[in-house]
UniProtKB/TrEMBL annotation, chain B:
Names of required cofactors: pyridoxal 5'-phosphate
Protein name, entry field: Kynurenine/alpha-aminoadipate aminotransferase, mitochondrial
Organism: Ciona intestinalis (Transparent sea squirt)
Gene3D superfamilies associated with the record: Type I PLP-dependent aspartate aminotransferase-like (Major domain)
Function as written in the Swiss-Prot or TrEMBL entry: Transaminase with broad substrate specificity. Has transaminase activity towards aminoadipate, kynurenine, methionine and glutamate. Shows activity also towards tryptophan, aspartate and hydroxykynurenine. Accepts a variety of oxo-acids as amino-group acceptors, with a preference for 2-oxoglutarate, 2-oxocaproic acid, phenylpyruvate and alpha-oxo-gamma-methiol butyric acid. Can also use glyoxylate as amino-group acceptor (in vitro).
GO function terms (MF aspect): 2-aminoadipate transaminase activity; glycine:2-oxoglutarate aminotransferase activity; kynurenine-glyoxylate transaminase activity; kynurenine-oxoglutarate transaminase activity; methionine-glyoxylate transaminase activity; pyridoxal phosphate binding
Pfam families in alphabetical order: Aminotran_1_2 (PF00155)
Length: 432, 432
């Protein structure tokens, strides 16, 4: 793999600066006295110890020694013990072909990041340039689109069906990319696509899973056209089936997959914990940008996560995964039941088999925007998100809406779904 | 103030995320049933409660309800319940009493919490700087900042400093190239941004006097510059019995100062907590950027700080900062003692009035880079050469930066002795 082709000029210009290189240098000189880094003294830190209590009664303790160690500046990659856990988890769930491979830049590496979205920000700074054309799921999370735009790049949506991204369509876009990107290029000379970004499990917003067969076909296309695949996979542990669909990372013999993992649905979203893994040549650059920005994750977030993993062990981790998938499956059953009862004939949908979203297609209209009309929302008192919010191509209208079933109570769903039915039927022919 | 003239093209293109918009409407209308935002279910969060002990015997406690709030996604600008932003406002009233607090909300004082001030600072630059722009900076300048701005494809223009920081004459002579009226010409390349660490500067330890700040502010008004006030050592000023030197924010009648605050030297650098404050038109842009990046600083960490402040009150916070000042003042005194013992005649320095750095000039040495990187390291002594801080890359410097925050008295004594050996050895070689 030639990674230079993928690393942006921007990332070439951002080198490690001397404070960091000197400190790293000092680690190689045993017995050295380091007065180079502006490291605040732990004596001035007001916190002495901490305890986190878990719902199952486990207590996670941060004693005074540990507090002294974690409260100064931490390394951007993450605490060593947390990185060890990330390796264990990835070996267990993905067994990446490039783990332990020869150190030529393609070997598997890891770095923590502040949520998968935060990681995506640093990753895009490393691999995207002005005028890049990025390939993206045709309906995608708004944060991803924003980050692509921030890099002054554009995105082309790749069509999906019930089994995920459609390989033929991907190939077609790659063959005709100049023609297809012309309407959004605004006269600029665009760069040939090098990156595919996709959420292959419990896709946000469609709820679709890309099957293993599809992943294998798409990986072949990525090899043929020498693409990087950014596997943004925050719902990976929310698969309802007994066996997991293998990830792109598990197929990655070349070192062309960068995976973004998130603890937001696994532990908690607020601590901003995630990690990125993949070819070290890319991970190193992306982590470098993090080093210039938030520098590291919050030490409390890292230590809580680390101690939580320690308390679970791998067995406990597997149990938690099962617990989560059962939990979200139950909610899917509850919501799908209500949708069947109140929205049959009004919408069509595919049963989601992972994640927390159900993607409803309004029958009898090609435009669901009226469901975002503020006055109507206040009148019917139920909110959903119209599909256009996720669409890559804003020149069309869309008949879909996304519902999230993670948090809303059953009682509220029992009130909300019939309200939604009324909202739709009473306004469906309304032009916005 | 014409705020829009300062906003970069990338920043100006940023729009509010519709999902964040619905969050706001939902917060205002609790009876609305939202199936919109992708919030995970709090029942899933494994942590039930937490307790953090402080050195002075206090406990910051999170019960089950607190934990639910602490572990959920929160607003990009900062957590609202309990309210860290409320504390930020109180601190700014006490320490800066910003004139813009009297303005109407749309041009008044606002703040956005960030993962350390560095995370905020890089976003401030991204908000203000277009490729090709001229950016004015302290020279010498914190190398972390240089690492941030170098890839942004702008021209870095050094402004000379002395032991009282930025020199107004130097700023004027740099700006001589342009007419002040050019600030009204959108085609002009007149600089729009001045970056400075005004208190206990990094690397020089210099603190700007109020007179200097007023002169600089007047120049900024004349040429319509934004002043980016990076002030992580504000609370490390050693005039323990007097008030700290007023900030640029305290004299900012126009709303042209964007201030970066950090808790890294006052609380914990590992926690990653800081905030950016200034006029709302600027801060609003930063909030949008956070929405497309890390989303928000760890809610748990924000609540930890705000709850600690709830117990301390402003008085307790002030007491803590005075203890921190006393601590670093004592370390400074020790460093000066050993520097005087070993380096008199070989080096000279100005006594820093705060912070953690001693900026030493080696007499008769044009450039300390090789000395530090090779000779000193051979003696197992790690300092930083002044060349690491030059705005113009490759500029030689007779200076080196010594951090006195961490080392024990014995280490300071030993380092100073070993450093002398390495200097003397070099001199001998030169004579031969």
């Amino acid at each position: 793999m030639d990674y230079k082709r993928f690393l942006s000029d921007f990332s070439e210009a951002s080198e490690l600066y001397m404070i960091r290189t000197m400190v790293y240098l000092s680690w190689t000189v045993p017995g050295s006295i380091e007065l180079a880094s502006g490291m605040p003294n732990p004596e001035t830190v007001p916190f002495s110890s901490a305890t986190f209590k878990c719902k199952d009664g486990t207590e996670l303790h941060v004693d005074e020694d540990t507090m002294r160690k974690i409260t100064p500046y931490q390394q951007p990659r993450g605490m060593d013990d947390l990185l060890k856990w990330i390796s264990i988890i990835h070996k267990e769930f993905h067994n990446p072909p490039k783990m332990g491979a020869a150190k030529d830049g393609s070997q598997w590496g890891a770095s923590v990041c502040p949520g998968a979205l935060g990681g995506m920000d640093f990753l895009f700074q490393a691999i995207l340039e002005e005028n890049d054309v990025v390939l993206l799921d045709e309906f995608a999370f708004g944060g991803t689109k924003k980050l692509i735009r921030k890099m002054k790049s554009v995105y082309l949506g790749v069509p999906m069906d019930g089994e995920g991204l459609v390989p033929d369509k991907l190939g077609d876009i790659l063959d005709r990319w100049e023609e297809l990107s012309a309407p959004i290029a605004n006269g600029r000379k665009m760069n040939k696509p090098k990156v595919l970004v996709t959420t292959p499990v419990g896709q946000n917003p469609t709820g679709v899973n890309t099957t293993l067969e599809r992943k294998q076909e798409i990986y072949k296309i990525a090899q043929e056209y020498d693409l990087l695949i950014v596997e943004d996979d925050p719902y990976y542990y929310l698969q309802y089936g007994k066996t997991y669909i293998p990830s792109y990372q598990s197929l990655d013999v070349d070192g062309r997959v960068i995976r973004l993992d998130s603890m937001s649905k696994f532990i908690t979203p607020s601590m901003r914990i995630g990690w990125m893994t993949g070819p070290e040549a890319i991970i190193e650059r992306a982590s470098g940008f993090m080093g210039c920005s938030c520098m590291s994750l919050s030490c409390f977030s890292e230590i809580a996560t680390l101690k939580y993993f320690d308390s679970l062990g791998l067995e406990g981790f597997r149990n938690r995964v099962k617990y989560l998938s059962d939990f979200y499956k139950e909610r899917r059953d509850m919501v799908e039941g209500l949708v069947k009862t109140h929205l049959t004939g009004i919408v069509s949908w595919t049963t989601p088999t992972a994640g927390m979203y159900i993607w409803l297609n309004l029958l009898n209209t090609d435009d669901s925007m009226f469901l975002a009309d503020e006055a109507l929302c206040r009148k019917y008192k139920v909110f959903v998100v119209p599909g256009i919010d996720f669409a890559c191509d804003l020149s069309k209208t869309y008949s879909q809406v996304r519902l999230c079933f993670a948090r809303t109570t059953q009682a509220d769903f029992e009130k909300g779904i019939p309200l939604l039915a009324r909202f739709i039927t009473e306004n469906i022919s309304r032009k916005v | 103030m014409n705020f829009s003239r300062f906003i970069s093209r990338v920043s100006a293109a940023r729009k509010e995320s519709p999902i964040r918009e619905t969050t706001r409407i939902k917060l205002q209308n609790p009876e609305v049933i939202s199936l919109a935002g992708g919030y995970p279910n709090p029942a899933m969060f494994p942590f039930q409660s937490a307790e953090i002990k402080t050195r002075d015997g206090l406990k910051v406690q999170f019960n089950e309800e607190d934990m639910k709030t602490a572990l959920q996604y929160s607003a990009s600008q900062g957590n609202r319940a309990p309210d860290l932003l409320k504390w930020v406002k109180k601190l700014h009233v006490k320490y800066h009493n910003p004139p813009i607090m009297k303005n109407e909300e749309n041009e008044g004082f606002a703040a956005c919490v960030s993962c350390g001030s560095q995370d905020g600072l890089i976003k401030v630059f991204e908000m203000l700087v277009n490729p090709g722009d001229n950016v004015l900076l302290d020279d010498p300048c914190y190398s972390g900042t240089l690492a941030m701005v170098k890839p942004m494809d702008c021209n870095l223009i050094p402004v000379t400093t002395d032991h009282h920081g930025l020199q107004p004459n130097s700023l004027l002579s740099v700006l001589e190239k342009w007419k002040p009226e050019s600030s009204h010409d959108p085609k002009s390349d007149i600089p729009r941004v001045l970056y400075t660490i005004p208190n206990c500067g990094n690397p020089t330890g210099a603190t700007q006097t109020l007179e200097r700040k007023k002169e600089i502010y007047a120049i900024a008004q004349k040429y319509d510059l934004v002043i980016v006030e990076d002030d992580p050592y504000f609370f490390l000023q050693f005039n323990v019995s007097e008030t700290p030197s007023p900030s640029y924010q305290a004299i900012d009648v126009d709303g042209r100062v964007i201030r970066c605050d950090s808790m890294s030297k006052v609380m914990s650098s590992g926690l990653r907590i800081g905030w950016i404050s200034g006029a709302y038109p600027f801060i609003q842009r930063l909030i949008l950027h956070q929405q497309a990046s890390i989303l928000h600083t760890s809610t748990f960490v924000q609540m930890t700080i705000s709850r600690l402040l709830d117990q301390w009150g402003l008085e307790g916070f002030e007491n803590h900062t005075k203890n921190v000042q006393k601590f670093y003042k004592e370390r400074r005194d020790a460093m000066i003692k050993y520097a005087t013992k070993w380096l008199t005649g070989l080096a000279e320095w100005a006594e820093p009035e705060g912070g953690m750095f001693l900026w030493i000039k080696l007499i008769g040495v044009d450039d300390t880079t090789l000395l530090i990187k090779k000779k000193a390291l051979e003696k197992k002594v790690l300092l930083l050469p002044g060349s690491a801080f030059g705005v113009v890359e490759g500029t030689s410097s007779s200076f080196c930066r010594v951090s006195y925050s961490f080392a024990t008295d014995e280490e300071m004594d030993e380092v100073s002795r070993l450093f002398v050996c390495s200097i003397v050895v070099k001199s001998t070689v030169v004579q031969v």
